[in-house]
Every structure is written in C-alpha cells, then in structure tokens.
Amino acid sequence: MKEIGKKVAAPVIIILFTLLCLLIFIRLSGPLPFYVQNVNTVKDPLFTVQATGEVNTIPDTVLISVGVSKTAKTVEDAKSQVDTAINNITKEVKNLGIEEKNIKTTSYSITPKYDDNPTPIRYPNPLEMQQQTSTNNTNSTSTSPGEPVAEEETSSELLIRPKPISPPISPSLDEGDPRIIGYTAYARIEIKSKPIEKANQIYNIASKYGANRIGSPQFTVDDDKQKELQKEARNLAIKEAKEKASEISKISGLNLGKLLDVSEGGSYYPMYSRAYDMGASMDGEETAVTQLNPGETTVRTTVTLTYETY
To answer: Domain for residue 95, yes or no?
Structure first.
C-alpha cells in the first residue's frame, strides 16, 4: 500500500509543481499573448434605383420688390424724401389687408453724388505768351512820324521765327478729391401678397407715392402648401422607385433583398418672375389694368432607394 501511495503521490506532486512554476512565470512576465485571426466577409453587391416625383400646382402667393431712390443736396433731405415715400407705401399696402410681417425691408443706403462734369482749369500756353510778348514789344518800340527807325527794330523776323519753346500744355483738371454735389438715398421693401389678385393694387400704390425701382412679380406658393406638395411629390417618387426596382429585377433576373436605405435629393420649390404691366403710370394717372396670370408651376423631389441582393 505504501508503494502504491508513493507511485500516486509522485505524479500529483509533479503536476502541482508544474502549475506553480507556470503561475510564477505568468506573474513575472505578464499575460500570455492571445491571437485572433481576422476573417473578412464580402457582402453581395447592392442595387440602387432613383426616381423623381412631380406635382403641378397654381401659385397662390406673389412677391413684389418696390424701391425708392431720391437725390438731394443734403443727407437729411434725401433721407426724408425716401422715408416719406416708403412709409406712405407701407401704410397703403397695409390698408389692403396685407399684414406687417409680410412687408420686409431688404435694402437701405445713402451714398454721395459727385460732380460728373467738373470745370477744367486751363493753364497758359507758352506759344500764345511768346506771341503776345512779341506783339507788345513791337507796339512799345513804334516812333512818331518823321523819326528814323532802326533797321533791326523794324525787322519782321521777331514775329516769324520766335525762339524755340516747349510744346503747349493741354487743359487739365484740378487734382484732388471729386466734388460732392448731393446725396442719394435708396430704400427697397419686399411685399408678400396672398392672394395674388392684389398685385395690381400694390403696383398702383407704389407708383402713386414715387417708387422708381419696381421689380417684376415673383410667383410661388406659401410655406404650408409647399410642405404638403413636397410630401406628395416624395410619396410619388418612392412609389415610382419601388416599381422601377421591381421591373428591373424581373427583367434582369436580379434577386432583391430587403430595402437598406432611402435618401432624398434636391427638392425644387417654384419661384419665378413674369413680365407685368402696371395699372398706373409713373405720374399717378390711371391706365388699363393688365391681369396678372401666374400660370402653372411644378414642385418636384428626387429619392434614391438602396437594396441588398442575393
């Protein structure tokens, strides 16, 4: 029995000693290195399809730019004239039922006005001065009748061949800063009107109170309607893109998996100008009113769908 116990104890002692040595080695050298092999997997190719949805509509909003420019000798006078005109236009436009939030100042400036035709300063011409001096000398040496005259004094050579002189100087302008003759004040407001039928009345008011920078009308749709039209156009685009993907997969034999991504491209919001005929002349006299026809416009958006394939 003792021999059997010795035979069993010997391997156990060896194993325990080995484990103890391994534990001491790990403590002294740090953890054992552990390697993981990277496995790259290649997914099946992706399939993308694009479509555009369009919705036609009639504009219900018009934007009109009205500007006033006045020139006066002083800044105060120019500014006062512009402010008076803009305030009168704004007041009358509000009386049409257009809210103040739809009347926006887009530009205001005051700039000096310079003399476009300054008076030139003419400097003396040396040739004219020489001829004038020769004439004066001739007159001062004239004698009374009967007195002898020296031959060299009566010679005409003094007038025919003057001494060499430099070329005449051309007229020039006085050097320095341009002369300010007045100031120009300018203000521009943008009026947003809904309905567009008020556009002719706005033009009449602007002309009546001295507006001299009037832009063509810009037709568009209001913000709430734009969102609705964009949503409708997006839905149409997604539907068309799905139908297109289905048709292509059937014809080509391509197997489409699940839809991975939907992205929306640029959306087009209509805003365009049309020529107009004001309902009043610049002197305030009433003329025939031309009906403003905004026509039809299109709201469009583009979407891209990405599918996995197998």
So the answer is: yes
